[in-house]
Design goal:
With 324 residues, this protein is an alpha/beta fold. The chain is 43% helix and 19% strand.
Length: 324
């Protein structure tokens, strides 16, 4: 009987449980045994795992987080520890390890692919949507909608008190999530790591909004651009010269990583698992499941770790055009 392993690594993202569920049931239907490693690569190193069956993955498709739990395991980037991991995997007769995670997890997956006899298949699991070149990553839609709902509520109080709100959202060093959050909420300004804007220019923009009669302003700030409170301390003295609005800060934080996944993320997790099982049946190795031209496809892990996604600067200009 072929044995496959599965783990979730790095930051959790909504839809991971949908992927675990579909992967497990499809694997069992093909007479595979499924081992779920607990707390990501920590479970591989410490031999912490459970055997997954139909019932252990029942009723989890709607749950956020990951039933296998996760961690960031720096030991795995030490070759001596990886040798322990390979030994543990071989002792369990693991044929293929399915790794659900983001860029850091895929870096680890690539090392397994290059150094060991264990096959690896990746499934994207990151709200940042920053893995090259897939058009989508698991959890992105839920995080986008969570941020959208929060900013819609913040806008109510911003209008009531005629305030400028700095709303910090996640996304790490890639600005796609903040940009789409800003576009979908009608925010006036978006600040992303890829493009820096002079503080005086930001203050002047806000002053112009006031002159045009706007009652409030929302600034969507990427965590990769600046810490919200540091940015507040930099902008507030400049903004006070204009005496227009009161400046406030809201950090959405980890609320974006939790919550019941949207239909899109449930489907993406489920269909990514379907493609992963198909790859295992075909003995394919060293790939991750991505979405290219709206089609699920296998992409070499090497592409993901050696390239960086870029955002469309024209969309930032467009946001500025319609933020009147």
């Amino acid at each position: 009987m072929k044995v496959i392993g599965v783990l979730t690594s790095g930051g959790d993202s909504p839809g991971m449980n949908a992927a675990i569920r579909a992967l497990t049931r499809a694997a069992l239907d093909n007479n595979f045994k499924v081992i779920g490693f607990l707390k990501g690569f920590k479970g591989v190193l410490d031999n912490e795992y459970i055997e997954l069956n139909d019932r252990s993955v029942s009723g989890i498709i709607e749950r956020g987080g990951t039933i296998l739990q996760s961690s960031r395991e720096p030991r795995f980037f030490d070759f001596n520890y990886r040798q322990i991991a390979y030994s543990n995997l071989n002792n369990l007769n693991i044929d293929t390890l399915v790794i659900i995670g983001g860029n850091g997890s895929f870096n680890a997956a690539y090392k397994i692919f290059k150094e060991s006899n264990i096959k690896v298949i990746g499934i994207t699991g990151t709200i940042d949507n920053d893995i090259y070149p897939t058009e989508y990553t698991l959890g992105y839609d839920t995080a986008l909608n969570t941020a959208k709902d929060a900013i819609d509520k913040i806008r109510d109080t911003a209008y009531s008190f005629e305030r400028v709100f700095i709303v910090e959202v996640m996304g790490r060093d890639y600005g796609q999530l903040p940009l789409e959050v800003a576009l979908s909420t009608g925010s006036e300004i978006v600040l992303v790591p890829e493009f820096r804007i002079d503080l005086e220019k930001i203050a002047q923009k806000i002053h112009t909004f006031k002159q045009k009669g706007k009652k409030h302003v929302i600034i969507v700030l990427s965590e990769g651009y600046s810490n919200a409170f540091e940015f507040y301390n930099q902008l507030n003295p400049i903004l006070k010269k204009y005496n227009d609005y009161e400046l406030k800060v809201s950090v959405l934080g980890h609320i974006q990583r939790g919550g019941s996944p949207t239909a899109r993320d449930r489907l993406f997790g489920t269909l990514s698992a379907y493609k992963a099982i198909d790859a295992i049946l075909k003995q394919q190795n060293g790939y991750y499941v991505g979405l290219i031209n709206n089609k699920y496809d296998l992409i070499p892990l090497e592409e993901a770790i050696n390239n960086k996604k870029t955002i469309n600067k024209d969309l930032i200009r467009f946001l500025e055009e319609i933020a009147v």
